[in-house]
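Hello,

Our lab assistant flagged a job as stuck in the queue for most of the afternoon. It eventually completed. Since we weren't sure the result was trustworthy after the delay, we are filing this so someone can double-check. Below is the sequence as submitted and the structure that was eventually returned. Let us know if re-running is recommended.
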Amino acid sequence: MSARPHLERLIARARQYAPLPMAIVYPCDRDALLAAAAAAKMQLITPLLVGPRDRIHAAAETAGVDVSAFELHDIAAEPAAAARAAVALCHAGRVRAMMKGSLHTDELMGAAVASAGGLRGARRISHVFVIDVPGHPRPLLIADAVVNITPSLAAKRDIVQNAVDFAHAIGIACPKVAILSAVESVNPAIAGSVDAPALIEMARSGEISGAMVDGPFGMDNAISAEAARIKGIRSEVAGQPDILLVPGLEAGNILYKALVYLARGECAGLVLGAKVPIVLTSRADSIESRVASCALAVLKEKNQ
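-- returned structure --
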């Protein structure tokens, strides 16, 4: 059996669609080009390389990647200029997604969220990880461990709805959302627990739609039905969540890295809430992770 069956099923599902035109922003290093070439070979994406021609060709030679078949939009300036050019290509309909290359996250996202000419949608922009943890019966979606540092209640509402809509796009009809905290009851000193009842009420009233929302949960009783039973927690979400809503970026970042580096999980991720899907890679991401993230972009774009 594959070490990452959940992600491989999503990749196979994405390959049923036509390749997604994707801007690879400032792909001036080995891994950015290897990932773009691998995703193109799997017919997930049609890369459009955006950045300085000379540096891209030098990186391609080092990586052993033939980029002659890829369109290249030459931007012989700083990385932020390449990000702005990629956003303009999205507005022009030349591409329908973006992937971060070897520029800083704030350079790419600064162009994406700019009030003038950016890619903001109707909701707050957020991020979701899809983690394939060995032995776990379903993929785990974690929101938001990348973009929103200390989200307000209103921001959490958008983070949840973005993640729920994305879950629908990857085939989860009615995702179960577990609101994570350090405790299972409301504690005024712990913001994550305080927000839980309000989010549950939003789901009941339709402000959050298409999901079951419950919490607060500790990580143990969110994941383990037995832990929930021992603690006397009765919930249709406890023990079988699809989405884990983390209280903030710090906790979410620690959780996803623990699942990847201790539990040997494989992850893919996507920025949500923008007008196009954005693959926001990390320097430490494997080529496999980046390719899987391209598959998520395809599924999101084709099923939004």
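-- support follow-up --
The delay was a queue issue, not a problem with the job. The result is valid. The CA atoms of residues 163 and 237 lie 16 Å apart. The first strand starts at residue 20 and ends at 25.
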